[in-house]
Amino acid sequence: MPPTRIRKRNGQEVTFDAGKIRSAIERAGRASGEFTTAEAERLTAQVVKVIAHRFREGRLPDVEAIQDLVEQGLIAADHAETARAYIRYREQHRSLRADRRTLVDAAASIDEYLD
């Protein structure tokens, strides 16, 4: 049985939603042209099974761990192009989060200076 909760990057706990995993896999497969909705559903079931196994006994997965398992599932299923696209997507979003943090830090520094 998969976990009922996961930990987001900001530390907040939210309800586990396999639909979000399916949506991400399906969008990646559609973008790469490697597979259909049916394959996305099959891959999602496999990833959720691994999550349930790795995070049993009340252990709480975080978003990064789940995304790592999605990558591994894509690679194991021989969807290399989709895995590469998914990895690039994750890297772009990591960079965007870092840029946002830098912008917030700069704004806080300016506000502090002005005060």
Architecture blueprint of SSEs:
Layout: E1 5-7, E2 13-15, H1 18-32, H2 37-54, H3 63-76, H4 80-114
Antiparallel strand pairs: 1-2
Helix pairs in contact: 1-2, 1-4, 2-3, 3-4
Question: What's the mean pLDDT score?
Answer: 88
Number of helices: 4
- The Cα radius of gyration reads 17 Å
Reported for the largest beta sheet, the result is: 2 strands, antiparallel
Helix content: over 70%
| Beta content | 5-15%
Low-confidence stretches: none
Q: What is the chain-wise order of helices and strands? A: EEHHHH
Cα separation of the termini: 53 Å
What is the topology, as strand order, of the major beta sheet?
1-2
Structural class: mainly alpha
Let me know the number of strands.
Answer: 2
Short description, anyone?
The chain is mainly alpha-helical. The chain has helices at about 20-30, 35-55, 65-75, 80-115; strands at about 5, 15. The model has no long low-confidence stretch (mean pLDDT about 90).
Descriptive overview:
The chain is mostly helical. 71% of the residues lie in helices and 5% in strands. The protein has four helices and two strands. The chain has helices at residues 18-32, 37-54, 63-76, 80-114, and strands spanning 5-7, 13-15. Strands 1-2 form a two-stranded antiparallel ribbon. Strand 1 and strand 2 (13-15) form a beta hairpin. The model has no long low-confidence stretch (mean pLDDT 88).
